[in-house]
Each structure stands twice: as structure tokens, then as C-alpha cells.
Amino acid sequence: MTEERPLLQINETFPGTEVAAETAAALAAASIVFRRGDPSYSTLLLKHSESLFSFADGFKGSYSINIPQVQPYYNSSGYTDELLWAAVWLYHATGKDSYLQYATVKHRKSFADWGRSTWFSWDEKLAGTQVLLSRTSFLNEDGVYTIEQTEGLQKYRESTELMVCNFLPDSPTASDSRTKEGLLWIQENGSLQHSVSASFITLLFSDYMKTSKTDSIKCHDKDFTSEDIRRFAKSQADYILGNNSMQLSYLVGYTEDYPKQVHHRGASIPADVKTGCKGFKWFTSEEPNPNVAVGALVGGPFKNDSYIDFRNNSMQAEPKTYNTAALVGLLSGLVHPLLLMPDF
Ligand SMILES: *[C@@H]1O[C@H](CO)[C@@H](O)[C@H](O)[C@H]1NC(C)=O
Ligand SMILES: *[C@@H]1O[C@H](CO)[C@@H](O)[C@H](O)[C@H]1NC(C)=O
Ligand SMILES: *[C@@H]1O[C@H](CO)[C@@H](O)[C@H](O)[C@H]1NC(C)=O
Ligand SMILES: *[C@@H]1O[C@H](CO)[C@@H](O)[C@H](O)[C@H]1NC(C)=O
Ligand SMILES: *[C@@H]1O[C@H](CO)[C@@H](O)[C@H](O)[C@H]1NC(C)=O
Ligand SMILES: *[C@@H]1O[C@H](CO)[C@@H](O)[C@H](O)[C@H]1NC(C)=O
Known about the structure:
- Pfam families: Glyco_hydro_9.
- The chain is an all-alpha fold and about 350 residues long.
- The protein is built from 14 helices and two strands, in the order αααααααααββααααα.
- It starts with 16 loop residues before the first helix and ends in a 9-residue tail after the last helix.
């Protein structure tokens, strides 16, 4: 792409807490990945993560209020979830008590919003925070916590269970936000985001149960085992890969039947042509894309389990990093139950 791609900045006068905290979370998570293989890189990641977090926490302001031109695309509903998310990843990466304190005690009233079942999305990280902290209460039995921290961890875990119960179709508290064929479904634009990310974190939760030998959780008066929860996550993946009445795989390149007009410049414009950013001839073409965006997950079906394979149907046909990445997590978890790394 040769057109201008201007960068926007956040700073102390125009802070963007969501962006700074989400980046801090990503760097902290990455520091865990590289801890063994490249310890000095891991240390560098952690250093920048901690300084970004203190910038995010010290200069609070919503990025989409301070940089309003992003509002038509990715308008944030608030930054308190990103701050908790970053603090909890930093707690996992450093083991520092101050980060646990931040999430479980200091901001328990204002940010944690216990007891509200949430969804996991690019805008809403609270669900991920809950799952990451339930990991601590399931697996870190030897941890030494204050009474308030223990209570906070317990509340996060209870909130996670409420959320999981909301996702399970046979739970007495099952959400009715799902299609007739059983896919969790919240919104028309990029509908798979919610089902994929919910299934991914639910699968992690079921692995924590299994690893900690927790037999079951209670949804109202009904018990669900880790296997029940895993089965639910698999049902969502099955639907996405073609177990649906359209017999369509929403994962591009998987089987013969997948969307052929994915809304994606690299896939719809032949290689090596010079468009000058005016590729409408290819945008309006009725032919299948010349290039197959193998591994992209498109936006997803309507509430009535149908899909219209037109390139201009962006809300269904546009692949997103934030649903494709979560699908990688979901499929990996289905292939291999959680491998418990000793230092994480
Ligand atoms: C701070 O960020 C705002 C918004 O991106 C920008 O307009 C402004 O020039 C920046 N300030 C400095 C001192 O760079
Ligand atoms: C973005 O969200 C803010 C705060 O919730 C709201 O005031 C604004 O109208 C929204 N903008 C758009 C374009 O939806
Ligand atoms: C989904 O898979 C199940 C089990 O393999 C099968 O019985 C069912 O007919 C499939 N449903 C659709 C809509 O493909
Ligand atoms: C979208 O694309 C389809 C198929 O190419 C075409 O029939 C339809 O008119 C287009 N819709 C709009 C709003 O351009
Ligand atoms: C399914 O819902 C979409 C969006 O509401 C609508 O455009 C489409 O016609 C419906 N398809 C069927 C088969 O009912
Ligand atoms: C759907 O959301 C994307 C950003 O996630 C935006 O670019 C697109 O315009 C939206 N489409 C519709 C039809 O709302």
C-alpha cells in the first residue's frame, strides 16, 4: 500500500489509556513467552510494559475521546477494563504484589464490577481479567495473600463462573444470545468475535478446573464438569468450521466451502497491480477473490444462521485480527489441553 498511513500519538496532554494499557498487557504476556528462550529480550519487554502501565495509570483519558477521528471505527466504551487487564498480566509476568493489589483491592470497587456477566471483545477485557485471576485462585494454592486479596480473587472467580454459566446452553442461567443452531451471537457486525472469544476463555477455564482437579462448577442448581464446558467450546468451533446448515466454513481456505469474496484488499486485488489506492474494479468484481486469504476468519453469520458471500458485505465478509487470533487460541486449546508451564 503506497498511500499515506499517518501515525497518531497519545501523550500526557492527550492520553489514551486503552491503547497504553492494552500494549502493556501484550508486552507483559510476550515477556512470559520469551522468558526461557531469550531472557534479555523478555526483560526488555517487561521494562517497557511496566513503564507503559504507569503512563496509562498516571495519565487517564480515553483514546477515542482524545483522538475522536477513531470513533466511527473503534469507539471505546471505557478504559478501566484495560487497566485491570494490564495489571493482571503484569502480576503474572512479575509476581509483584502491587499488581495483584491493584486489581483485587485498590480498584475492586471502581473497576472490577463483580457479579456482572460480561463478554470478551476488543473493547471489553474484563472477562479476560476474570479468567486470568481465576487461574490464580485455581492453580496458585501456595500463594500468600492478604485477607482482602483472597476475597478479591474469590470474587473474580465467582464472576468468571457466572460468565461461563451464561455461555453454556444447558445452564439454567444460559444466555439467549445465540442462534437457532447454537452459535453464541451478540451483534451483526463481525458476529463471530463474541462466540470465538467466549469459547476460547471458557476452554481455558475448563483446563484450570481439570488441572486443579475441580470436579464441577454450579450454575444455579446444576453441576457442570470441565468436560461439559470443553464440549461447549468444541461445539462453537465445529459450527465455525462447517457444522451449520449453510455447510460453510467461516475459516477461509478450510474445506471447499468457505467465503470466496472475502472483504480484504490483499485477497481481492491481483498481486503486482498498481491501484493507486483505487481498487474499485476489483472491489465490485463478481468473481471470486484471485488470492485466498488462508487462515482468515470472516465476520460471521447473521442471527438466522445465514451468510451472504458478497465482497461489499463488510460486516459479514471482513476478516478481523481480533477474531482470527482468538480462533487460533480456541483451536490450539482443543488440540492440546493447557500445558502447564512451571513458571506460569
Ligand atoms: C499530543 O497528542 C496530540 C493528539 O495526538 C497531538 O495533537 C499533539 O501534537 C501531541 N503533543 C505533543 C507535544 O506532541
Ligand atoms: C463514542 O462513544 C462516546 C462515549 O460513549 C459517545 O459520546 C460518542 O457519541 C460515540 N461516537 C460514535 C461515533 O459513536
Ligand atoms: C453437526 O454435527 C452433528 C454431529 O456430527 C450432526 O449430527 C449434525 O447433523 C451436524 N449439523 C449440521 C447442521 O451440520
Ligand atoms: C454488493 O455486491 C453484489 C454482488 O456483486 C451486488 O449485487 C450488489 O448490488 C452490491 N451492493 C451494493 C450496495 O453495492
Ligand atoms: C437473515 O437475516 C438477514 C439480516 O437480518 C437478512 O438480510 C436475510 O434476508 C435473512 N435470511 C433469511 C434466509 O431469512
Ligand atoms: C463494522 O465494523 C467495522 C470496524 O470494526 C467498520 O469498519 C465497518 O464499517 C462496520 N460495518 C458496518 C456495516 O457497520
